[in-house]
Amino acid sequence: MSSDVSKPTSPTSPSSKATERSSVVRVGVLGGGQLGRMLALAGPPLGLRCVCVDPDVAPPCAWVAEHVQRSVDDPDLPSLLDGRVDLLTYEVEHLPIEALRRLERRFVLRPSVRAVEIAGDRLLEKTFLRDLGLRTAPFAAIDAPDEARAAVEQTGAPAILKTRRWGYDGKGQRRITHVDEAHDAAVSLAVPAIAEGFVRFSRELSIVAARGLGGDVRCYPLVENVHREGILRLTRAPASDVSSSLQARAEALVTRILEAFDYVGVIAAELFEVGDELFVNELAPRVHNSGHWTIEGAHTSQFEQHLRAIAGLPLGSPAARGASVMVNLIGELVDRDAVLAIEGAHLHLYDKAPRPGRKLGHITFVADEVSVLRARIAQLPEPLRSASLADFDATR
Amino acid sequence: MSSDVSKPTSPTSPSSKATERSSVVRVGVLGGGQLGRMLALAGPPLGLRCVCVDPDVAPPCAWVAEHVQRSVDDPDLPSLLDGRVDLLTYEVEHLPIEALRRLERRFVLRPSVRAVEIAGDRLLEKTFLRDLGLRTAPFAAIDAPDEARAAVEQTGAPAILKTRRWGYDGKGQRRITHVDEAHDAAVSLAVPAIAEGFVRFSRELSIVAARGLGGDVRCYPLVENVHREGILRLTRAPASDVSSSLQARAEALVTRILEAFDYVGVIAAELFEVGDELFVNELAPRVHNSGHWTIEGAHTSQFEQHLRAIAGLPLGSPAARGASVMVNLIGELVDRDAVLAIEGAHLHLYDKAPRPGRKLGHITFVADEVSVLRARIAQLPEPLRSASLADFDATR
Predict the structure, then answer these.
(1) What is the Cα–Cα distance from A345 to A330, expressed in whole angstroms?
(2) What mean pLDDT value characterizes chain B?
(3) Which residues of B touch A346 (CB under 8 A)?
(4) Which chain B residues have a beta carbon less than 8 Å from that of A337?
C-alpha cells in the first residue's frame, strides 16, 4: 500500500479536530461478518464509528470499518483496543467467555457477558427461560453419551440432540426418532449437549427488541420466519394475523428477558406459536437475521437501534413502514441485475464467497399491500423464485 | 498505526478471493465530503466499493471509504488510481477541467466531463439551457469590470453578479439594486462573471433525476426548497400542490437536459416556479442536498441511484414513501440526544467541524401526513426549532 493512499483516519488518535466535531463514539464490534458490516454502515450518520475485531483477513466489515485482525481470545487484544474504542459490543454470540471477562475488566461491554454466556449455551439458556416462567421445549442435559437415553426418555422422542455451545444455522444437531438412537447420536456430537423434545407449533415467529441504558424497551412487530435445513430462508414482517394480545404477550415476554439480564442493546427471541401460547426457542443477544427487514421496513433499523442503545442514546421508533418480506441468499449468489430490475427491490450483498449453506446476502421488498410482496418475489430469477414463493406461501 | 491493526482491505489488489465473490465494482469518487460519504455508505450493499479522492487529511468520507489524499489536479493521481478503480465519478462540480480531461483519457468518467464543465460555469450553463429552449433568468457575460454596466442594463436591475465558476452556497455573489453599483460589484468579484436578472418566482423547486447507461430516465418527485443567505435550509418532499402536469413538465425538462448531455448518473435541477412556468436556476451534475430526503423518503436513495446508474445497473424506483421534510444543520451542531428523542427522526452527521455557514449534517422526518412533519419540527431544540418552523411555514 503506497503511502500516498491513506486509509480511513484512525479512530485511535483523537485529534483536536475530532474534539471540535460532534462527540464521536468509537464502538468496537467483536466479529466482522455481515452483522458487523451492517452495524458499521448504520453508525456514521449518528456520529458512531465502528472498529471490527475479526481474525479473517478480509471479513465483510472490512470495506466500511476499521478492522483489527485478531481473535477475540488473542491475549494482545485488550492492549490493541485500549484507547481506540469507547465501548465494545458483539455481532456473534458464540464467543470464548473467559476472553470476554478479560475484556470486561478493561472496557464497557454491552450487552453484558452474562447475557452472552447464557444465550450461547443451550442448557443455561433453556434453564434461564424456564426459571423466568417462560415456556420452552422439554429439555434435558447430556454431559456424557451414556446420559443420552435417560435424557431422551425425559423429553420424549422424536427429539433433537444439540451441542450446548457453538451451534448455528442447524450445525451441531442430530435429529432422532426413537430413544434407541440417542446414544449413537450423542457419540457423534460433541458433549456436553442437550436433548430437546419437539414442540408442535403452528408457526415460527420472532421478536426483536431493544433496551436502552435507562431501561426503556422498544419492540419491533412480531415477524414470521421460514427455515429450511436449519437456516432462515424468509421473514415476513409484520407477521400476518397477529392480535394485539399476541403482540402484547410477545413484548411482555421479551421485556422480562431484557430486564432479567439488565440488558443493553438489541436482542432477538425466536418463538414457536402453539395455539394461543408462545414458546421460546432460542435467544440471540445481538442483531438478528430476522430483523434485517427493519433497514427499509421500519422507522429505525435494528442496526441503528442497537448502536443507539449501547451508546446511551434515545431509542428510535420500531414501527413498521408497510409490509416487508426478506429473502436470504444462501449458498449461491443471484444475478444482481435481475434483482435490481425488480421494482422496489433492496439488495444487500455481504461480500462473502459462495459456499453451501452460507449466508451471502439478502433481498427485502417493502410494499403497502402484502399481495404486492408476492408479486415481487415472483419476479426473482430461478431457482430463488420458486423456493421463495414456496416459503412465502408457507407463511400464514 | 500498528501493523496489528489492518485497515479496510485494499481494493487495489484484486485477490483470487475477491473474484470468487460477486462482481465488485470499485468506484472512484472525486471529492470526499458528505456527498462522497453518503455515496460510500450506499455502495456496499450493492457490491460497489467507493474510493474517495480528497486533499483533506480527514474528510467526511474517511470513516467509510478508502481515501486517496490528493487533489484532483495532482499530476500523480492518474497513476495512483490506475488498477484501483473501475470507473470515476464526482461529488463536487467545481473541478479543474483540464485535470478531468487527463483522467478521462485513462478512466471511465460518469457523468461526462462536458456536463461538469458546463454545469460548473454559470455562463456556459445558462447558454446551454437557453439553447435547449428552457427558460432561465435574463443573464449577460461580464468578462471585465467595465462590461458590468452594459450587462446589468441588459438584464435589468436589481440583479445579482456571480462569478462564472467556483461559487456555492451563496459565495461569489454580489446583489445590486441599481445599475450604478454594477462596476464596483464586478471589481470586488473575480471576473469572468455574469449578471443575472431577478425572476419573480412563487417558490423554489428542484427535481432530482437519474439516467442509466442504457438511456432510461427515472425522476424523483418535485420538492420545494427554502434558502436563507444563499444556503439550502429545508426541503419538503414531495412539494405540495404539484399537479401531474407540473411534474410532467419538470420531468420533460430534466430529461431534455439529461439527453443533451448523454448523461449517466444523478443530476439535480434547481427550478423557479413562475405562474405556470418552470425556470431553471442552476444544475448540479451530481447527487444534491435537495435529494437527501430520498434516503428514508423514497424507495431508492439518490446515492444508490447514482451508483446504480454509473455502474450500469438497473435504476431503482424513485417513488416517495409518504411525506418528508429535510432540515439542514448549518454552522452549528445540534444536541444529538434531543434530536434522536423525536419519534421518527433520522439524523445524519457529516463529521465536520462547526464553522459559520457550513453544512454539518441534516435531519429527515418522514410521515404519512404532512401535519405530522410540522409537529416533529416543533420538537427540535432551539434555535433550530424556530428557524425550521418558519422555513416550513414558508413552503406552500
Answers:
(1) 17
(2) 92
(3) 45
(4) 313-314
